[in-house]
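Why does residue order matter? Because the sequence determines the fold. Keep that principle in mind as you read this record.
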Amino acid sequence: MQKYFKNYKSIFIMSLFSITFFVLGFYINTFFMESDNPVNEIVIKQSTKSQSGPDDLSTLLEAYNFINDEYFDRSKIDHDKMNDETIKSLIKTLDDKHSTYVPPDKWEIASTDLTGSYQGIGAYVDMSNDQSSVIIVSPITGGPAEAVGIKGGDKIIKVDGESIIGLSLNEAITLIRGPEGSSVLLTIERIGEFEPIEIKVVRAKINQPSVQKDLVPDTNYVKIRINQYVESTPEELFDALEEAINEDKALGIILDIRNNPGGLLGSAVNATALFLQEELITYEIDAKGKKTMWKAGNEIGRFSQIPIVTLVNGSSASGSEVMAGALQDYGRSVLIGEKTYGKGSVSLVRNLSNGGGMFLTNAHWFTPNGREIHEVGIEPDVVVSLPEASSKSSEFYDTQIDAAITQLNFETNN
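Structure:
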């Protein structure tokens, strides 16, 4: 029996050591080709170099050895749990809400985010203003959350009776999501309600187009909303613009990226390039000080002539801030609304050998003119707030749309 534990211990030490110091054992290569495909996604390549860790973390292995060798109740030694908790603790020391670990049972669900479909309750969420919990930005039309009466502005404080106060956004999302057909009980604080309310939601597969097009009543304009930047966004946006110009005979476009949480940086870059003649969309500086230029794809400038006005707000984050910053820097579009979120960091996605995965902040990006986005945000050219009493309702007078119409009237008449 002792021999068994010693052999198992050796195997586990190697596994734990490998995961603990994965940063030193793997390398990320991001390739940018200047011909057929200027903007490619992150490429993950496993290194064949031997793995090692700093000597000053040897105490971690000492603690493991002590527990594994001497703890009385062997049934309580759970190596999978040790793995998970060790990785969580490593990330927690970074004090970065955008870096997180997702365990194996949740990783497959979490990693489908950027394909345009996922399994969950069907709602856009964000951290609350006090960063204590998760708030519903808006339910997705036709989704399970909308069907059971969940509203924008609802604050989720518990998931299946478990408090999520203090969790990161990704940690909370992994609890909220789950397989299609399963149910989740959300405890919610709602404006106007004195006590928290509980709502049961049956999860479903959510297929949400990343781009939506609507005619703006009583105008010659079309509103195009980008919900999130997924693989298909540039193509969806191209088709929507073609239809708006050729079929709807639109004289101007209201580009709505309010409540857009971001997504694939390459998709945001290629979508932005449709409106610009300029090649540089953004650049990033990584942990080692390397500067990488993100340049336009093959469809650069295809819609660079039609007047556009862009709507942003405090939940426009990440890729949507890249788009807003580039359009503003080049004078291509007036930005209307409220200051954006300020999430200007690049998150690397890593599949781990235990079936889980990680999101790790690796770089910050900047607008073409060198403005930093992270924890700063993008200031709109025209500040317009939504009416406070109505901003959480799906039926209200949209003062930001009204301001965009006024701006487009000025541009098209001059």
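Residues 1-50, 389-396 have pLDDT under 50 and may be disordered.
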